[in-house]
Each structure stands twice: as structure tokens, then as C-alpha cells.
Design goal:
Radius of gyration: 20 Å
Helix content: 25-40%
Protein name: ROK family protein
Structural class: alpha/beta
CATH superfamily of the largest domain: ATPase, nucleotide binding domain
CATH topology of the largest domain: Nucleotidyltransferase, domain 5
Organism: Dolosigranulum pigrum
Number of domains: 2
Family: Belongs to the ROK (NagC/XylR) family.
Length: 297
């Protein structure tokens, strides 16, 4: 069976694994990211690749290729990491540098959200012509859509769901979706409405579970605002699959049901079948690795 190496580079860790043609994942390794310099990150990337090969017991040239997902702006065609706010890579030629070590391998890089969308696409058994949209809600918010194995790119800002403007009832103002409901925004709402008991996003959800009235107000407002954004996505794209990921959603999967309930109040009757297409990722945070490896198989 063909196999590839999938890599997921983040500001806190670099993960790697063997991805097989049946989209199974094995030989998972990860290291904390050394962000002291561009070269330090690159050397860690090499170390993760070699560690995966060592665990698999084979040479890197026995793989079909290496797929890499990384945050921020990526020049896919040129293989360059253009800008990442949590990595010291500024127009760093990732593919060219890797080719110095692995000249025979097919190497593909892409934005991490796009790689996660591909991971969901390859595991969801999507039919030809069906559109899958992946939405991540974490420290930030973004989306990516795949149809017939192709990422819908547009002119460059396709999928920037977090940049869309919504009305935030908690702020009583229009703002970017990311500013209103991403993880840091939930923590901010908690600090404003609840006070010193809230230090981070998790605290708001813990208080919600305990029946705290202010936390309930925050979560209900946040899910309503997310629903407005998904309503827009349904009206613009009408995806066959809308899959949620990211730490906010994956740690609180019941939020999907709350978003669905809010959508039931906002969608037109003819659109409401879209509610059944909402789901939480089942890939346990590994969709980025799966997508990255699958891109070169």
C-alpha cells in the first residue's frame, strides 16, 4: 500500500506521521517547536521526518512524498512559507530547502486549514461533485472548501470566514466573526461579564457546565453569532458537508447542536435540510496530518 509522510507545523509543536492510501495514520511523532530561528524550525522539521522514517523502519525515499501544513500565508506553487505570525519564517523556501535533502520526493505545502479540510474530505467518502466545507474555531477562525479534490481558492482570500462581519449581541456592535466568537473573544466576554473567575476560554465553558447564568448568556450568544456566519455560508455555497474542528468545537462538540438549533430559526424552510449536514470532526485533531499526507498519495 502506498504511504506518505504528513507533517503539521504549529507554533507550539511539529507533528509527523505515516499516512497510508486508506487514510490510516501510524508512527505519530511530535516535538515542541523551537522558534528561536528560521533554521531551528527547519532542522526540527528534518528531525521529525527522520524520526517518522526510523519508526517505520524504512528510507524516506520509500514514501510517495511529504505533505506539510503550516499556519499563515503560503505560496503553494512556489513552495514558500510567506508569513506566519507564530513562526520565524519570512518568505522561507520550505520546498526548495527540503529538496536539498530529498531531491527525489514529491513535496507539497499548504495552509494548515486547507490541509485539515483535505483530511476531512479524504475521510468523509465525499462523492464526485459534492462540496465539503471545513470550519475551524480555535484561537482564530477560518474555513476551507474542497470539491472534486480541489481547494476552492478564489483570488486569495477564499475561506477567511473569521474576517466576515457579524453583529455581536454581547458587544452590541458589528465586528469580524473572529473578534466576536473565537477562543480569545469567549475569554474576553467572560472577563467582562463574570470577572476574575475567568482567566481563559476553558473557564467560561466550565462555568457554563455549572449553570452560571452569565456563562450561559455568553455561550448562547456565541453560538447564535456562529449560526449567522454558517447561515451565510449555506446561502453562498450550500455545502454537502459542513464539518467543524478547532479546539473550541472539538473540546465542546455539543456546540454543533446549539448552532443547529439557532440555524433552525434563521434558515428559510427550503434551506433547513442543510442542518443535517453539520457535524463535528471525527479525526481527533489529526485531520491536518491526514490531509497533508493524502495530498501526495
Amino acid at each position: 500500500m502506498k504511504k506518505a509522510i504528513g507533517i503539521d507545523i504549529g507554533g507550539t509543536k511539529i507533528a509527523g506521521a505515516v499516512v497510508s492510501a486508506d487514510v490510516s495514520l501510524t508512527q505519530l511523532v511530535h516535538q515542541p517547536t523551537d522558534t528561536s530561528s528560521a533554521q531551528a524550525v527547519f532542522e526540527q522539521l528534518l528531525a521529525v521526518i527522520e524520526s517518522v522514517c526510523e519508526q517505520e523502519g524504512c528510507s524516506v525515499n520509500e514514501f510517495a512524498g511529504i505533505g506539510i501544513g503550516l499556519p499563515g500565508k503560503v505560496d503553494r506553487a512556489a513552495g514558500i512559507a510567506v508569513f506566519q505570525n507564530n513562526l520565524p519564517w519570512d518568505n522561507f523556501p520550505v520546498v526548495a530547502k527540503l529538496k536539498e535533502h530529498y531531491p527525489e520526493l514529491n513535496i507539497v505545502i499548504d495552509n494548515d486549514v486547507a490541509m485539515s479540510a483535505y483530511g476531512e474530505y479524504f475521510t468523509a467518502e465525499v462523492e464526485p461533485g459534492e462540496l465539503l466545507s471545513y470550519v475551524t474555531i480555535s484561537t482564530g477562525i477560518a474555513a476551507a472548501s474542497i470539491v472534486d479534490g480541489q481547494h476552492v481558492l478564489g483570488a486569495g482570500f477564499s475561506g477567511e470566514l473569521g474576517m466576515t462581519r457579524v453583529y455581536s449581541a454581547l458587544d452590541q456592535a458589528y465586528m469580524r466573526l473572529e473578534e466576536a466568537v473565537a477562543g480569545p473573544a469567549i475569554a474576553r466576554h467572560g472577563q467582562q461579564l463574570i470577572g476574575r473567575d475567568v482567566q481563559e476560554t476553558k473557564d467560561v465553558f466550565d462555568l457554563y457546565a455549572q449553570g452560571n447564568a452569565e456563562a450561559e448568556q455568553i455561550i448562547e450568544s456565541v453560538t447564535q453569532t456562529i449560526a449567522y456566519a454558517i447561515d451565510n455560508m449555506i446561502s453562498l455555497l450550500d455545502p454537502h458537508y459542513i464539518i467543524f474542528g478547532g479546539s473550541v468545537m472539538e473540546k465542546n462538540p455539543w456546540l454543533v447542536a446549539m448552532v443547529a438549533e439557532a440555524l433552525d430559526d434563521t434558515l428559510l424552510p427550503a434551506q433547513k435540510d442543510a442542518i443535517s449536514r453539520l457535524r463535528i470532526s471525527q479525526n481527533k485533531g489529526q485531520h491536518g496530518l491526514i490531509g497533508a499526507g493524502s495530498r501526495v498519495l
